[in-house]
């Protein structure tokens, strides 16, 4: 490998947005068109319309660090490499895995040209379909206890619910993690009003989109799957009924007098 | 006004992303091209390349509810109205103001076709330019005490810092609110390690972009202006030095053993 080839290498970590082609930014489209090798979880790679000269290296969803290292290795060999994520690559996705691999890897990986291309992350797409539930202070929590202990997740949920944040839950449920979302609802029922709106936003902007709103008292974890982002309102969050149209859910920009404690 | 005209009215609340034309989604571009009347804060309207037949109604940044009501009125009169925001319209922006106006306004406003077009919000664009600081649980807080009391902001900052969230601060400073960001840093210095990375991300993706990283101990509020999103790391957030290249800042996807309390 020559020094010259090294200098042409680049690694781009690209967010493809929640799923609709209309929500892929022109920047993402351009960087994809410039790429030579594409690393990612199969369903994300399937969204790309690659040319015959563009190479596709698919891997399982759980092999993030291996995938990042393989991609960095090819970039160091001079290739224009793309690592693709759904949504935004910086939100519970590949950008952090690539940074982890860079920190742990050979010094030459730090010299690589790294570009992160942001995208519309799931909670924003879900919020847009239902009104403006993230209209005031909010947080995003991954409910996966593969990478942090469940007690930490519980402590975080309780802290933000008590402090009045709207909560967006990523990775709410999977075959290997079937009980966590139900447990989270149980905990939140002890902190938030029973009528707090809960949004189940599945596959926002895709043909199989499904949106549902219910009270926290009735929130049923079995409504969620791996493609769902769950948004739990704050005590301020309001529902506007609209007759035959779907209700709007929003969190006002201001705090009402009674909530100022 | 005939019933027929009412039915053709539509109000779209559009996120134009952080500023680069490459980060405007094709969906936003399409909805803009379909619009007849455009309501917004002047700098956001200035980003649009409107046709002579498209009407522009600019207003000051503080008149959000009036602007929303004026836009809804025109939509109810049968116009295809666009309300434009920078970033994502659902994050401290116009989507919540439009929902507030709908809830308080005449019943016919609930019958209007409302479309919210999501966009890349500032914290995602800033994070992408610097690595992956939002790679684990994070929150977004507006530091404006125009719409909520300062004590609530302090309580929220303390709750999320103690619970281990990365914190993105929107509206960190303005001429009318000069001291709040300094006070927030002061409070956070009492909770977080002195070496916690703080990112000042100004105008991400625009020609006047400016990114700076410093330790919380040295974080200087005067570095921020109205176009800045400030991201404060968690105790997990790491900085990778890269010689001549700008350092990378990221938050690992997992919790390290020593932080599991």
From TrEMBL, chains A, B:
Residues 11-219 form the Tetrapyrrole methylase domain. Gene3D superfamilies: Cobalt-precorrin-4 Transmethylase, Domain 1, Methyltransferase, Cobalt-precorrin-4 Transmethylase, Domain 2. It comes from the Bacteria. The keyword Acyltransferase does not apply. Pathway: Cofactor biosynthesis; adenosylcobalamin biosynthesis. Residues 1-25 are annotated as: Disordered. GO terms for molecular function: methyltransferase activity. InterPro entries: 4pyrrol_Mease (IPR000878), 4pyrrol_Methylase_sf (IPR035996), 4pyrrole_Mease_sub1 (IPR014777), 4pyrrole_Mease_sub2 (IPR014776), Cbl_synth_CobJ/CibH_dom (IPR006363), Precorrin_MeTrfase (IPR051810). CDD domains: Precorrin_3B_C17_MT. Keywords: Cobalamin biosynthesis, Methyltransferase, S-adenosyl-L-methionine, Transferase. GO terms for biological process: cobalamin biosynthetic process; methylation. It holds the Pfam family TP_methylase. PANTHER family: COBALT-FACTOR III C(17)-METHYLTRANSFERASE-RELATED. NCBIfam families: cobJ_cbiH, PRK05991.1. This is Precorrin-3B C17-methyltransferase. It comes from Neomesorhizobium albiziae.
